């Protein structure tokens, strides 16, 4: 029997093709693991990982073969981010956000097939979608910039960045407060609202070159979570984007989102897989240490003490809880035919995201207690995991918001509006 791949700890029923793609992921894990401690200490994304992932073909993991990719699916992405999360969660998170860019190519093509675009709209939509996928398939790193510091009570993500028409294209102004691979990615795939539109129908997508005039990096992000993600964010000050580098058909953005199976871009559960991989790694590390080390007076493993047995039991339950939620969501979003209608799948994710991240954080907290003062090191596996997994408690939305929205869906049958627009401050 072949040795188990790291990704198979999450996805234990891989097909032959999925396993071949997972082997590519496995090949990069030693380098990711070797750089993790230094990357965390310095708070810098290891730029050598770009070439590493590109040469392994992994920047095109979920891109169809006809666009130069590996032809993977959400199952492959979840297995990949899980495996990378066991080695370097920061790289896994940045890699996840690169892959979310594929939705800007895949979902528009599905929307065309579903008849959501008029005949005259199809050529520019198809051309933009192909550009996204072709670039990813050729090894271009895309950073997906949507989130902003502007908040609205009506939505999770509020877009205030504006795009105004000019000769030959568009001019972008605004600030993106969250987005991995700042200064690392080749392009920032940026969401902005078209001038004259005040609803989500006016949201558009632009290819912003990393070094375009008017693009600058915000202050270094010294966050509590994954520190080596290059998560600084960008400022856009009169940035010109040619017409052919944008998808600006009103309503195109919202129409393509209708094609996702669950979360708004159809791949959000892969971020939960990052946290689960991190939790698995800290669990393995601490249990290994506790079973190898012994008490000086009895010679028995430290893991055999009643207190440590209790902590290990709690960690095991929390880790399994994370696995159950991720695997259930993966089944709901990839099964053919669909197991549940989209509103139920979406509702499951609103519950599942918080449940996974809270369970994973509890694994790290248990590892911290079990390892004692010897594990309370900023650069150690336990210390890094505590900080890395803390990010999951707030990223996108905390568990409390997800549960509140589920309660509203159940009691009021009220659909959650994900995006809205706002005036720039």
UniProtKB/TrEMBL annotation:
Catalysed reactions listed for this entry: dibenzothiophene + 2 FMNH2 + 2 O2 = dibenzothiophene 5,5-dioxide + 2 FMN + 2 H2O + 2 H(+); dibenzothiophene 5-oxide + FMNH2 + O2 = dibenzothiophene 5,5-dioxide + FMN + H2O + H(+); dibenzothiophene + FMNH2 + O2 = dibenzothiophene 5-oxide + FMN + H2O + H(+)
Domain Acyl-CoA oxidase/dehydrogenase middle: 149-239
GO molecular function terms noted in the UniProt entry: acyl-CoA dehydrogenase activity; flavin adenine dinucleotide binding; monooxygenase activity
Cell compartments where the protein resides: Cytoplasm
Record domain Acyl-CoA dehydrogenase/oxidase N-terminal: where: 32-103
Gene3D superfamilies per record: Acyl-CoA dehydrogenase/oxidase, N-terminal domain, Butyryl-CoA Dehydrogenase, subunit A, domain 2, Butyryl-CoA Dehydrogenase, subunit A, domain 3
Domain Acyl-CoA dehydrogenase C-terminal: residue ranges: 269-390
Enzyme class: oxidoreductase
Cited Pfam families: Acyl-CoA_dh_2 (PF08028), Acyl-CoA_dh_M (PF02770), Acyl-CoA_dh_N (PF02771)
One Gene Ontology cellular component: cytoplasm
Record has Transcription as a keyword: no
Enzyme Commission code(s) on record: 1.14.14.21
Pathway(s): Sulfur metabolism; dibenzothiophene degradation
Keywords on record: Flavoprotein, FMN, Monooxygenase, Nucleotide-binding, Oxidoreductase
Protein family: Belongs to the DszC flavin monooxygenase family.
Protein's UniProt name: Dibenzothiophene monooxygenase
Taxonomy of the source species: Bacteria, Bacillati, Actinomycetota, Actinomycetes, Streptosporangiales
